[in-house]
Amino acid sequence: VNYLSAPTPLPSFHHCDYSEWTPSLSIIPAVYLLAFLVGSLGNGLVLWAYLDRPDGRQNIGSQSGVSKLCFSYPPSVPRPTRSLTESLIASLALADLCFLVTLPLWSVYTALGYHWPFGQPLCQISSFLTALNMYASVFSLSVLSVERYWVLTGRRHSGHHPQQSFPTRAALILAGVWLLSCILALPGLLLRSVEEIEAATDDWQEETVHPTHPGLFFLSCQMDYSMLIGEDLNETEREHAEMWWAAILSLKSTLIGFLLPLIILLICYCSLAKLLNKHFGRGPRPDRKRQRRLLRVIVTLVLSFFLCWLPLHVNKTVAVLLGFGFIPYSCALDTVILSAQPYVTCIAYLNSCLNPLLYAACDPAFRKRCRGALFFLCNIRRRQKRNLGSKRRGGRREGGKDTGYCSMG
């Protein structure tokens, strides 16, 4: 039901029960909507806290005539810095937000028994954003970890970059992350299609009758490999070719979007562990404390990502091996894989709403910035109310003068 779906397994035996567990059609949509609400609010706050917009704050203050203190962070709150690390954290939050906006659609899709009523364009765009989130997230985390490795091993200074060099360097890195992610996510945009499928009605298929459209046609948002397959193939050859393309794209997402980054990060952190105590023994104590905090946040984000996405990648890899006969075919195993697919997908999607909670739990500076952001918004709101009140008082005074003039006339 999503871009990471495993290839079609071998022909099923008639006695196998492939029916959907009915509570799933209520539980999973509710989880999706909760993740949408929590994740959108949390990642929006992350973007607010980590993006550096000092000019905007100064302009607001100067235009309104209010002191800079009223529209800036308190002295105890660290202002956002122009560091590559925080730019990548903002990139991670943006990737999560791009995906979270599609969760209401996937929620309705699941609640309707995987019936897609939103049309072809939204099917393609939603699938593209789902894939884009996975690649952009893991690439941002990988660059974050490598950045910390270079800083903590002393190969690059942790201070701010010169104003001339940092924007160019950060822009190139972020552009590379997002460009590569977009290219790898293109199959979800180009190959997704809304296809009309007839619900099962035969006696031996009673277990697979569609839960919301029995005996009718329903629309499924799924991968369509017809543009990759020659038209001169017979039905059996086409099915075999579709299995190969599904397996290739499935393994591509696992290798590039999971295993390869995991290997890079393991090498990075294993090498870093050998130098960690030695590095933290140098330099001023505040710098060591800041580096330790940053490393703890990044390691937590990395672990969260891989633990959330691991069940999905394992499930679809086992499905590929089962479909091509590398694992002896078993009706029970096939049923477990198909039944687990919605839930492992749900766990992977939850990662997008967990990151802000992890920031809040692991990073005191993020909590201070959130308080600073709320302080800033409260001051804006207070200023707006004050201006509105002064306008109303001025209007009443002018109204009083007009009334008096009319009464004298």
TrEMBL record:
Record's GO cellular component terms: external side of plasma membrane
Entry-linked PROSITE patterns: G_PROTEIN_RECEP_F1_1 (PS00237), G_PROTEIN_RECEP_F1_2 (PS50262)
Transmembrane segments: 27-51, 88-112, 132-151, 171-191, 243-272, 293-312, 318-340
Residue ranges of every copy of the G-protein coupled receptors family 1 profile domain listed in the record: 42-359
First-listed, main subcellular location of the protein, grouped into a coarse class: membrane
InterPro entries on file: CCR1-9-like (IPR050119), GPCR_Rhodpsn (IPR000276), GPCR_Rhodpsn_7TM (IPR017452)
Coiled-coil intervals: none
Biological-process GO terms, alphabetical: calcium-mediated signaling; gastrulation; immune response; neutrophil chemotaxis; positive regulation of cytosolic calcium ion concentration
UniProt entry tagged with the keyword Protein transport: no
Keyword line: Cell membrane, Developmental protein, Disulfide bond, G-protein coupled receptor, Gastrulation, Glycoprotein, Membrane, Receptor, Transducer, Transmembrane, Transmembrane helix
Protein localization: Cell membrane
Pfam families (alphabetical): 7tm_1 (PF00001)
Region (Disordered): 388-409
GO molecular function: C-C chemokine binding; C-C chemokine receptor activity
Record-stated family: Belongs to the G-protein coupled receptor 1 family.
Name assigned to this protein: Apelin receptor 2
